[in-house]
Amino acid sequence: MLRTLQISSSGLVAQRLRMDTVAGNIAQSHTTMNEQGQPEPFQRRLVVFEAEQAQSRSNRGLGVQANVEVDEQSLPRIVHEPGHPHADAEGNVTYPNINVITEFVNALEAARAYEANLTAMQVTRSMIEGTFQILG
User: How high is the pLDDT of residue 30?
Assistant: First the structure.
């Protein structure tokens, strides 16, 4: 039963990382310059989940590992805004391709997964307490 708690704990950590990444994407959704002040839009970050490496060949469950990767597939949005301070010679501004609605949906999904892991931990705890009551 302790392994169940470890698996749920890894899920909590992964979903927390996902929430932090979504928050960062939303915060950077209008960033048009890099740290050096050059015109380069922020690149959206994605959290990629994968199963933890198995330490043995038993049929035990595996936790999850989460890694943040830069989304290099999506192209930036180009908006014609001649008065913008970061506009190019043609008056176009390059924005990150971050859809705030999609990010909010991802945040909601991560919150629900976090809650599910908490519930699994609470049920496991109840089972452990019940076992101790039976044993006396």
Answer: 94
Q: Can you tell me the distance from the alpha carbon of 65 to that of 47, in angstroms, rounded to the nearest whole number?
A: 10
Largest CA distance in the chain: 79
* Number of separate domains in the chain: 1
Strand residue runs (E) in the chain: 45-51, 64-70, 77-80, 92-95
Two tokens at 97? 């391709």
Alpha-carbon gap, residue 16 to 4, rounded angstroms:
18
The domain of 45 spans 2-135
Q: What is the pTM of this model?
A: 0.84
Q: Which element (helix H / strand E) includes 5?
A: helix 2-27
> In Å, what is the CA distance from 73 to each residue of 8, 76, 132, 136?
31, 10, 52, 58
